[in-house]
Amino acid sequence: MSRPVPIVNLREGEKGVIVSIVGGLGVRQRLSDMGLTPGTEVTVIRFAPFGPIELSVRGSNLAIGRGIATKIFVEKE
Amino acid sequence: MKKTEKKINIALAGNMNVGKSVIFNSLTGLHQHIGNWPGKTVERAEGTLHYKGYTIDVIDLPGIYSLSTFSIEELISREYIAIERPDVVINVVDAPVLERNLFFTLQLLEFGVPMIMALNQVDVARKKGIAIDYKKLQKLLGIPIIPTIAIRDVGVHKLLNEAIKIFRGKKKTKPLKIKYGKDIETRIEKIVKLFKKSGTKKFEIKYPLRYVAIKLLEGDKEIKKIVNDINPKIITVAEKYAKEIERIHGHPSATVIASQRYNIVNKIAGDVQLFTTSEKKFTEKLHNITTHKLWGYIIMFVLVLSMFFTVFSFGNFLSEYLTNIFANAGALFEETFGIGIVSKLIWSLVEGIIAGVVIVIPYILPFYFILGFLEDSGYLSRIAFLVDNIMHKIGLHGKAFIPLMLGYGCNVPACLGCRIMETQRERLIAIFVTTLVPCAAVTVIILGLVGKFLGIVWALALYVINLLIIFILGRILFKVLPGEPTGLIMEMHSYRMPHLKTVAKQTWFRVKEFIYIAFPLIVVSSFLIKLLEVANLLQPIGNMMIPITVDWLGLPVVAGIVLIFGIVRKELTLIMLATLAGTTNFALVLTPAQMIVFTLVTMFYIPCIATIAALIKDIGWKKAFYITIFEIAFAIAIGGIALRLLLLIL
Fold it and tell me: Which residues in chain A have Cβ-Cβ distances shorter than 8 Å to B487?
């Protein structure tokens, strides 16, 4: 286990476990509602050249804007 | 409602895109009433059906991921379930994404309402290599579960039978009691005790006390408001507890509670799901290529452009055909009733209706139908993914692309479509840029004037200029309006075969918005303008506008009159121009520069009257007024500037 990095630092296909999410209450609430809670394993599927990142989490695929993604910290597996 | 009455209220609740609406449609068929929630710009879909001697009212709650109060939709759903107390809630669950959907199910269970689960798309799950032991799930959750394939009507009637059983009390359910970690549970209990001690009755709050306690620990604003009116002391205690939980776990208590809920769900899902190997499916390959760094964009451009090309070339053909038919009818009308003032006025009413028809049938209907297919298949969310960053530059996120696309058909449903944006601020930006999108009527002008006489390159250039201006103005508005932008958090569903009935229905609802809002306005204002014409007032008005139309914009005098007509229906400007100029060969009466200026002005100068009505409905008089005034001034300014630039190069 390494120290936490923003999920945008991962490469496509890499997995990580969410350690923390920084940012406003609203964003955190939305993310946890969608299944992005601390301790959850996420896989980076791809980065779009114009912004968002596609994650696979709990069996569903989510598109997360770049700004929000920089606030999700993970430990690389 | 007394149980002796044979009337059952059912609410459908679930995540977005799980087939809730398909179930709703197949239950209620055409007996639907679509309106708005009182005072809210959220669609409220209700329907009635008769089954086994019961009158069953079904309400399709908005698709949501949680019962927190992040969005208006979530608040509405929660209040509906708490206050209206439907007899049965049918929780529609997307079987391929069981875990995430169960998160919502748990929240419904905490609500303590009588519940059934429709485990939908079990076929898709199976194809994905996920088998779900629904009987086991039923036992774990303690509620009846019906596997369904809504698009093929499988299991839908079983839902009704089950609902009736629950309603008649013939089926006793033992819903799962959700237990959080000990540190949280003890605090929930303490808060509940405080409520009981202070003598708070359940009806005062309308929500179960345990639920209220959990929500207080989560810091839910709406629940806090309610409790504050009854017993503000409890809030202070709850806030203290929330802090304690945060200290123990190192995360905000709302996150801790959500995490634990997900842990429960994760365990349940793990117990009932059996994964078999699935070969890399076609839909997955399609997803990969349509979100690809290079191919994704190429496919997007080709698809969108060919859609436009198909709709508008086919539409043009059909529109001309229809216009000819109606022209004959007009001639017949004149023959029969003469050309007196009264018959002219009456005919103007008929003309208003015809005008609506020749824009709806050839353009708007096919456009929305094709768009509906793309939407239902899941492709539009891929476009939203691809363009997210560009939209961020104007303070929106990828999802705003959808109303923007709708705008190319008609601005009216597009403005109403801006409701998918999460905050008021984003809704306003989205609505504003949407009114700048050239709708089908404007496209008729661009293609019929510039495209026909100056070539398709100039027409395309106008579209590009339009996009640039949308971008610039959107960005200015974004910078001017206070507030923080919301980022994109969007689920990307697996591609699926579009469901014809759903697409048809969606198309119809969008076209209906045009018919209900735009049609009456078009007819009435056609009549009013005819009245002006009959009273010989058009000429003086046109003359009054000379400083703008002739001096600044360099257009012929008739342009003033034509532009007034355009307020009603933009496509009419071209027809009017032909009538007033006495020819359809515009090259004889307009210079190339004039054509471009004229088109630019019509493109921007005012949202048509129907769009203004839609604006008023959604954002109120004041903002609608400002947008209108701004766009008039802007169009005039840009037209004059364009003229001076064009004279330099042409």
Answer: 27, 64-68
